Amino acid sequence: MAIEVRIPTILRTYTDGAKAVTGSGSTLSELFADLDANHPGIRERLVEKDELRRFVNVYLNDEDVRFLDGINTKVADGDSVTILPAVAGGMR
After folding, report:
1. Among 2, 33, 78, 80, which has the minimal tally of Cβ within 10 Å of its Cβ?
2. How far apart are CA 78 and CA 61, in angstroms?
3. Could you give the CA distance from residue 42 to residue 14 in angstroms, rounded to a whole number?
4. All domains of the chain, ordered by start, with CATH?
């Protein structure tokens, strides 16, 4: 088994249009490094200075990883990771 990573539309250029990809690792950091090996450039869109970028939300099995252990959150085979870019703005 592997870890399923759901990719938002804005990052699908890195995954050749795939809505979901699989990866491996024991932490989110390792998972993102594995993803970057197969989909070059994706990690730098998610991580800056070994921390999640401010406007990127990551969920592990529907739990916000910012309330877990951030980039060091443990992951395991069969887990599901969802990446969601934060949306801001709009009209008054």
Report:
1. 78
2. 10
3. 6
4. 3-85 (3.10.20.30)
Q: What residues have CB less than 8 Å from 57, skipping those under 6 apart?
A: 64, 66, 83, 84, 85, 86
User: CB neighbours (10 Å) of residue 10?
Assistant: 10
Cα separation, 8 vs 73, in Å, equals 20
> What is the pTM for the complete model shown?
0.89
Asked if residues 71 and 29 have their Cβ atoms less than 8 Å apart, the reply is: yes
**Residues found in the chain:** 92
Q: What would the 3-class secondary structure string for 42-84 be? A: HHHHHEECCEECCCEEEEECCEEHHHCCHHHCECCCCCEEEEE
Region 4-26: mean pLDDT is 95
Percent of the chain exceeding pLDDT 90 equals: 85
- Eight-class DSSP state of 27: B
- Extract the tokens encoding 5: 């990573």
Structure tokens at 16: 């050749």
